[in-house]
Amino acid sequence: MLWIIFLFNITFEQSLFYSAYTDSTLSIQDSNNTFKLDWQFFGNTTTNIISTCGSSSIIGGYNLFSNGVAATLFIDLQPHYKMKISFSLFIIDTWDNEYFYLYADQDLVFTQKYSNNNGQDEICGQPGSNRKDQIHQIEIEFDHTGLTSFIQLTSNLNDSAHDESWGFRNFRIYIYECPPQCYVCSKVDQQLQCEKWIRAYSIFTQLLENEFQENTLISVINGATTKQLCSQIPMMCGYGVCGRDTIIQMNNLQLPFHTRIKIKLKYLIIDSWESTDYAQILVDGVLRWTSELSLTNQNLYRVCGGGSNDIFVNLELTFPHIQTSTTIQILNTLNQDFSDESFGIRDLTIYTQQSNCGDQIIQENEECDDGNLVPFDGCFSCLYSCVDGCEICEKGNCLRCGQGWILQRQIQKCQRIDIPIIQFKLKEDKCNDKQNDIQMNQIRRDCETMDYSSLVVCEEDILNKCQPQCKICIQSVCYQCQVGQNLIMGQCYELLKNSIQLEDLSKQEFICDFNCEDCRNGICYQCYEKFQILDNQCVGICGDQIIQLNEECDDGNNVEFDGCFCCRYSCPQDCSFCQNGICIDKCQQGYYFIDNSCQTICGDSIIVGFEQCEDENNIQYDGCYQCRYSCPLFCNDCLNGYCYNCDQGFILSSNICIGVCGDGLLSIQEQCDDGNQIDGDGCSKKCQLETNWICNKNGDCAYVEYPIPIIEYYKQENQFQYVKMTFSQLVQQNLNLQYKDTIQLRILDLNQNLFNIIILETQPAQFQILQRVEYIFQIEIMSNQQNHPILEVLLTEQLYNENLAPLLYLLDNFQLNQPNHISEEEIITSKTFQNINEYSVNSLFAIQGILFLLLGNFFSFWVILDALQQQSYLKYINVQYPQTLIIYFESSDAVSMQSILNKLPRFKYNSTLLKFPFQKSYGKFEYYNINANIMEGLILEVLIFGSLLIGYLSTLFTINILKYLEINLFLQQWPKFILFIQKLKRKLHSKLKLFDDNSIKRTLLACSWDLIFIAFLELQVQHDFESSRAYIRLTIALVILMIIILVILQQIHGLRSWQKQNFIQFWEQQKEMFNLIKKILSLYIIIYNQQNQILQTLVLTLINTFYLFFIIYCQSKNGFQEYIKNIITEISLIIFTASTSLNWNIVSSYFSYQQRITISWVQMSVLVSVLVIFLFIEIYNLISIIIQTVNKIISFNRNQSNQSKLNELQNLNQVKVNPIKKQSNLNKVQNQQQPVINQRMFIVCQ
């Protein structure tokens, strides 16, 4: 059983990282492992590798592991500097002074000789006096820093496993981990030290094959660029694919600022490397590592090569490096074929380290490091600088001080000697003539007289550590004087009697700087924060970007010539006069005032500044490039841009190394060199490949037909033209890249803003895979052209056939058709027609809604909807309409039943029940992205019929509720409310009668366009009959068509009564049947004849013509408006379909695109006029109904007024009637009202 434990502490540094085969009962691999542990066993003749030895279950053992057997483990590790491996080793049977080996990568970390004479007893081997088995606990520590480790357990046994064998168990790996946050380390590293190493790149480090990825930063020259496997270990290159002349190259790696670089990788030596074979690593063209790896221990068994042993070698290189853009090359000196000598790499990791100025460690880019950032102390910012007051210095050591300063040679510093002017007693001895005295304030050299009673100080006094009068002296500074002496500024003096009193002096001249925190007798020992002691004064720290009193500027850096250097204004380079760091003078000759500084310009023919040369061009390798000397190409000896000797195979001519054609040596300037200068043999006299020939490096040439790009016109759809590019042969790429990105397309003599080209990959070119390659170019030209546009196709990368022959040519021009472009004015006009269409449709539906509420009649709505749906299917006629018509047809979707659902995206896409797979259509349906899946189109129809059913059930339920309320005793006390309920119930009963068979049929007929369309389309497209969904969809399509046919057959029964009726009466009754047949025929022609545009147009025109004839001949006596609407609809359809013939492919070539656009205006006008006429008719109907309603109201009011007058006259006559008669009449009225009251009570009770 295998298992892994990470970071289990054993000691302070050591941790258990990996453990395997430790259980009492072993298995080859634990199924619960989080990580795959890739143990491999070589040389074992059986699949079983587990045996029992004594009471232990072991890997290997008796009759299993012996001659030629090795157990290997490849494992990735945490950052560490040391490993420890422990395991139980079982030595079985007759070992006769033979060795057991343990390898970790290239290192033999353990070897031990064993003999059966040292065995303990028979444990698991054969019985016999000379067959003693042994069990050893092996534990070995060794240095190791690799990201991974290839561990191998093996022996040099030479007999069969029946005679001598070995096994192991309890295998454990311990690692000594690096400090936290460290990628690399050594035993002595602290965290602050190893954290300086930053991992910049980590490539080819994955352990599993499916996770191992190639990297675009890596290019392999003369070798495989895909990953390889070596005993299930993924790597770059490998056996038989990389070797002689292979270069693994990483170009322009971008690194952070650094001073050192560390490169680690695992290098696999495969097969028979010889002593002359070296592996090499170049960094920026400099050889940084080379090694004769064949000297590495060769006792490893074959891992992935042919017949020799293979070796994993951990490499680690560390060297100074500062370039932020670097190139790394891995080379070799192998001289045999790949099958004999090869190599591979993995675990390539690059680390960088940036030096820290101030750590008192002088690194590569530092001149010094004194552990501080104090200026004027000899080392500032890790560069040598002069101490304060020094005039001349070398490497921080002052050689001469400036005026007003004196050199203290013991400490190599300058001391200011501006001592206050005080009357002091002079020494009796004059200064020695050999001494260099220092005069202050015009002191005479003989020291006899002095002006202003100044003090003479001789160099001898300063060269002594302190004056004799000094009692305590530290580094030439006196801190306490003897009795009778006064300490003033670090020296002892005796004051004259008539001089200023010390108390007064200390209060005035010897007061310290006001920024001093610790002042004693005029000497400052400690300054406040942000200040430092310099010449007994507290000065600001230069570089803290705070301008103190002693600073002119502070830009936070120590860059010279940037206007501020060492906190003093400095002039830009080559500027003779500046003010506050800004150059204000004219620059010297050859310099130009640019960005507030004097700069040179390369190419002005004037050599100044850092320029080495000037040749007034920017040509590389001509001796001078970017004003720096450059050697010509292939020159191996040049000075100041002049070549004196060329590489082999080149001759020098006019400072250029030219390849010698015909010498049999292939140079970079030559495509071939067959050793002669004869044309027609594949290699021309100028050493260039001839057409349909290929040559190798040895000059051998063979005739091979080159592949040719084939560019042909594909099709034209509206404003888009499509051009197809194929090749005459199967081709492949030799570079792993997106070949589409290497194709450059443009329209000659046309501004790039006036065209747009998209490359569609039908069958893209693949890396090292031969196949048929095809690309389609979608071209849109956004302006009209007088001449045919010319498409230029440029292939910037080659493709090759199976013989590695390249394309014959990479540039081709192709003539396009005239572009189908419409102007902005034409677009606006098309959208105007589109808006009229939409507004008319919306207005018609709104008016029909009002009429339905007023009249309860919805018949006119179905007539209008049927006509509009016919128009919406005209766009599917498979001709190339002008773009103007395509814009107009966008509005026709509004009258399609299917379009209603498309306006509900939330309802459609948020419901998982309404998501169906997309079934690709064909022809015009594919152009409009129509989903041929019938389930998609059936959604709305289901919703419509479901809504009809819900409306019916809701009405029925409401009627039952009203019946209950009508007999409710509580409500009987409000007779008027009961009457209202009865009236409402009667209205609902009348509405309920509408939900009959006729209403269902009317709804079915309204949806028939969409139903027939989705059924025919489903039957026409291809299906995957391995899926049960295909059968379900086909069944639904057939059921829909059967229902439509049954509706037609139901109406055919009217033929029996034809003899009793005339034809007009028969047509009046069966017109819905004929309309349904027309729909079936029209949609069948549109869907099933997409490839025959002529037949589509002619048949549709004939269908509409015959239907118009029947309408006119069989004029309906009832419904004149319907008659007019049908005639207008059919006439518009005939005009449109007939004029569509001008867009046939065989006819459209005789008309210009503008003429076809003009015809489209007529077609749109015809279609829009139908809607406008319908709109006027419905407006007329609405106005008529409103007028009738108003007249009824007026008539009712008039009748009410007349009735009121009549009642008044009757009342006047009744006043004159006899009271007896009046009483009689009153009784009569009461007798008449009594039955009415009784009748009302009966109704209420009922």
Automatic annotation (TrEMBL):
UniProt entry keywords in alphabetical sequence: Disulfide bond, Membrane, Repeat, Signal, Transmembrane, Transmembrane helix
The keyword Transmembrane helix belongs to this UniProt entry's keyword annotation: yes
Name by which UniProt lists this protein: Insulin-like growth factor binding protein, N-terminal
Transmembrane intervals: 844-865, 938-955, 1031-1052, 1094-1115, 1127-1147, 1159-1183
Xref: InterPro entries: Myxo_disulph_rpt
A matching Pfam family: DUF4215
Keyword Mitochondrion (UniProt): no
UniProt organism field: Paramecium pentaurelia
Signal peptide: 1-15
